[in-house]
Amino acid sequence: MATSSFSKDFVVKNHKDxxxxxxxxxxxxKVSVPNRDYEASSKKGIQSLKRKLSSLxxx
Length: 59
Known about the structure:
Residues 32-59 are annotated as: Disordered. This protein is mainly alpha-helical. The protein is 54% helix and 0% strand. It is built from two helices and no strands. The radius of gyration is 25 Å and the shape is elongated. The two termini are 36 Å apart.
């Protein structure tokens, strides 16, 4: 996975923009991640791999 860094100074002179930034910064959005059944996902992947490999043996 690629990583990058970002370093730049920004100067904001508009007080309205500063207030909006601080308001958004202090109220982060809630991120919800759905629950995932890793066991079922793993079984599905293994079955798919078995089907793929079995078709290679028949050739």
